[in-house]
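Budget justification note: compute hours in this period were largely spent on complex prediction jobs such as the one shown. Inputs:
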Amino acid sequence: MMYSEKVMDHFRNPRNVGEIEDASGIGEVGNPQCGDIMKIYIKVENNIVKDVKFKTFGCGSAIASSSMATELIKGKTVEEAWELTNKAVAEALDGLPPVKMHCSVLAEEAIHKAINNYRENNGLEAWAMKTHSETIHEHVHGN
Amino acid sequence: MNTKNVYMDYAATTFVKPEVLKEMLPYFTEKFGNPSSLYSFSNDTKKAITEAREKVASAIKADKSEIFFTGGGSEADNWAIKGVAQAHKNKGNHIITTQIEHHAVINTCKYLEKNGFEVTYLPVDEEGFISLEDLKRAITDKTILVSIMFANNEIGTLQPIKEIGELCREKKIIFHTDAVQAVGHVKIDVEALNIDLLSMAAHKFYGPKGIGALYIRRGIKIDNLIHGGGQERGKRASTENIASIIGMGKAIELAVGEIDKESQRLIGLREKLVKGIMEKIPYAKINGPVGDNRLPGNSDFSFIGIEGEALLLDLDFDGIYASTGSACASGSLDPSHVLLAIGLPHEVAHGSLRLSMGAGTTEEDIDYVLEKLPAIVKRRREMSPLWEDFIKERERV
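Corresponding output:
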């Protein structure tokens, strides 16, 4: 398996690793059975993602995708962060091998969950999660 | 950039020893004559092949007429299983194997299942051993073949081959063993062990890749796998891979000659590695047996909270080359079938690491691994939500 230099950089030196004590929202996706769990913490102030941290159990591309996704939403409005697609994460990493695309899907889903968790914590209605990514995940993981 | 090169994947493949290569070289350029040709020019190659066959035979206490060269271990496994199934299908359609075989055996059995055969996959205990009672119970009057690996490639388990051989002999069932990981590393006597068919591959004992052999006990009926010319006494067509056959002969001769000394040395290195890892890494788990019934150079661990592919990438960065049973490293859905069969939960199997040692492994290599690995595990665990949950759970108890 060949990873791009960007993937290796974000795997070796992941950005935004850790937790946020007083997070506005937390999103966790994946399961240990599949070998990947991603947990993203966001701190929102004035509708801006002021800070974001992650913890990930998973392979090289799962860790790199988490790192890149957190970089891409930091400082953005909540609406902008919601628009981040798995494709954008993969592109920012100069591509992922086809069997690893679901790692970028996990990153997108974790962010969506964190944002909805923030919205619910603040009495707002959760936004509808995209469904296309589910099929990518199933496509890669079978069943 | 790192300048170390610590190869810890001898179970995957070995280098070709210089003495082996030296013996092979003339057979590419000067002594290239086709052994099937009548002219005297080919006499050298004919003679050399016979000598190599004798070396392979003597390494497992067989007769040279019982050794057939193949294109590797997978071909030998395919031939043994399909060949016996075809030749004995009128007697029965039942085959017994285990859940932890190499894919060359498992996928051949699955293929036969699609073609009218029934296969029992024996379970194993937490160290990877089959139970003789299970084997006894699985045998029916339709059973024509038992295929059980000598040594497991992932967790090093050495099966009770002698007892399995005795039982099969008593029940008059053909016994095949995939000994690809064992030949050249543990002593094998096909007579004493009652083995009828045995697969081996040269690249696991410092010979070249793409060459192996199947031992077929005299009198065992088996159909051909490769049809064609009359090579290998009409049993395996294709012009002989002369240089590789010579290399395999030399390699097995060297390996068997130093088997006691080298296995003692490797066991020493392995024990040092295991001890160091268990001391330095919290909640490390040894996969496979502890003690004598294990391949000398094999060690396998699980580190809860981290995933194997990430571990391999980090080790690679430090110049350490190893392998894992994690699904993410292979691109498949599930982690290693061997680790699941010994009862590991998926997440623990995903965090497995195999470090296999061989002729080039030194004390310094072990020290280097023990210096680098604990820091890698610690760092990756610190960013793992699974590890966090595991530790919280521990603290609660």
